[in-house]
Amino acid sequence: MLRTSLLARAARAAVLSTAAVCCAFVVVAPAVAAAPMLKTQAPGYFRLMLGDFEVTAVSDGTVQLPVDELLQQPAAKTKAALAKDHLAVPTETSVNAFLVNTGSKLVLVDTGAGNLFGPTLGKLLDNIRAAGYTPEQVDDIDITHLHPDHIGGALAQGTMAFPKATIHVDKRDADFWLSKARMDAAPSESKAYYQGAKASLDPYMAAGKYKTFETDGEIVPGVRSVATHGHTEGHTAYVVESKGQKLVLIGDLIHVGAVQFEHPEVTIKFDTDQRRAAKARAEVFAEAAKEGAWVGASHLPFPGLGHLQAVGKGYRWIPANYSTLLK
């Protein structure tokens, strides 16, 4: 028994001695250089199932916007609302597009900015490929409106970025932004909007891959246009439906969630018609909240997908829950 006890104590002493040596070694060892910071994000795509349809949100990147100067309310109120969400000005703002795979058609809603908005945007094509698709697979492109951050990505190095796709756009928007008379009369800082729309659409027109519509209707089975005029003359939302599930892709009906969910009456300088833009937002938000429909927005933080819940005179945004179980 005494021998066993002595052996045990010797073993413990040996362990403690070894630990002390190891600790001493760690203290005097030369420092290992830290791993370099990468400062990149994962590819920008997010997927969910809508009935039998597969919907993929695709990021075109982000852009810094001086939203305190753009929203039609006192800048101090905007800054206070942003601060509640731990945001500042300028505010990093997402530019999102959406791929809808119906099983028979691959539909892209908006194309991002391409090279029209600087180096932080124009990521759409790379992210479409990262998501497992190719631009050549896109059958139809539905444009919410012809602002450059929604149409610029239709062009790549001067040619059609989506060579097999037909572009669909509200005729009112096309008539407005493709008008030479309007472009000539526009202030110099606005002429690029007209020039960008024309340059992006010209190759599709030449190829017979351009169609306009004047009334609400089905673009492809399961995807239909709904007029939401105001942000631009022909601003359009697209409603996607499958097996009783609905997704409303609302384009630029909202820009700054930290402000416009609680106060949907607040408009932005980008709106062509402030009153009609606010009215369109009110109508779409109320219906989406009542129906429990999915909502996809171009400028909410990526992926820009979620639900709306009415709270008083405003709304609460419930973002999509991340899931790997796509069934």
How would you describe what is shown here?
This protein has 327 residues and is an alpha+beta fold. It has ten helices and 16 strands. Strand 11 and strand 12 (236-242) form a beta hairpin. The termini are far apart. Residues 1-27 have low confidence and may be disordered.
Strand content: 25-35%
Number of strands: 16
Helix content percent band: 25-40%
CATH architecture verdict: 4-Layer Sandwich
Low-confidence stretches: 1-27
CATH class: Alpha Beta
Q: Tell me the CATH superfamily.
A: Ribonuclease Z/Hydroxyacylglutathione hydrolase-like
Radius of gyration: 26 Å
Total discrete domains: 1
Main sheet strand line-up: 1-2-3-4-5-8-9
Let me know the largest β-sheet. Answer: 7 strands, mixed
List keywords for this structure.
alpha+beta; 16 strands; 31% helix; seven-stranded mixed beta sheet; 327 residues; Metallo-beta-lactamase, Chain A
Topology (SSEs and partners):
Blueprint: H1 2-28, E1 45-50, E2 53-65, H2 67-70, H3 75-84, E3 91-101, E4 106-109, H4 124-130, E5 140-142, H5 148-151, E6 155-156, E7 159-160, E8 166-170, H6 171-177, H7 180-185, H8 191-206, E9 210-213, E10 217-220, E11 223-227, E12 236-242, E13 245-249, H9 257-260, H10 274-291, E14 294-296, E15 305-311, E16 314-319
Parallel strand pairs: 4-5, 5-8, 8-9, 13-14
Antiparallel strand pairs: 1-2, 2-3, 3-4, 6-7, 10-11, 11-12, 12-13, 14-15, 15-16
